[in-house]
Write the structure tokens for this entry.
Amino acid sequence: MTSRPDPSADAPLRHPLLTGPVLTSVNSPRVKAAGNLSRRNVRQRERLFLAEGPQSVREAFAGAARDEVRVEDAFATHEAAERHPDIIAAAKAAGIRVRQVDPSLIAHMSDTVASQGILAVCGFVDVALTEVVTKDAKLVVVLSQVRDPGNAGTVLRVADAAGADAVVYTSSSVDVYNPKTVRSTAGSLFHVPVVTGVGLSEVTELGRARGLQVLAADTHPPVHDLHAPWDTGLDLTAPTMWVFGNEAWGLPEADRGLCDGAVSIPIYGRAESLNLATAASLCIYESARNVRLR
């Protein structure tokens, strides 16, 4: 006598810490909704974005626990829940249900080739320019015409580590909620205030009005030397707004004209130049160090 096959034999193993039933279909409305956030127009319409990977999701849940981040949905594979029980526990503490998803669906929800199996759908976190560029601000980072998501996210991460008051992405720069940008921030997107979609002239005008000196990271003369600013009268202990330009062509002349001065990084070796993220890191940390010496 031939026995009937057990229909549950190939079913995904339910993880006790995750919310079921296990999502296994690409036609699941939740799976589709998360996957659609790879498109900027959908993100803008819904004001939602996808945080992916343990570090970003951990910080999203921590922000939700402080009522600073809105988490609309969360997903994890069985394997991810096994590897990161602390993150699942943090979700529970924040009142967030993490739904179990079959590993085969991760590619439909994320643009990562090798996903780490844990995702969160979060509400936009950007704030108004006037909320962060205030008379109390000491260090503000501005990205103008920065198009590379990896550089844009890394600069935000550095700004967070250096204790910057805010990071501003002008309307000419990459979308901060681009999945690659979000991953590059390694969770710092949930730490430092972010402003998006404003013009550079508006940003620099407000910064100057609030008492910040506006400095362009640029090599076109006349320039101050980052390592010898006192030689040309530059005071890096003063509140500063740094403006960083495009990875390939830097800041156009019109944009440099919106700044109070330009600062170059000395090259002591044979390298022709530094990439944007590295140059920004040096400038941001030099300001942070000097402000603390004041």
About this structure: The two ends are 87 Å apart (CA to CA). The first strand starts at residue 19 and ends at 23.
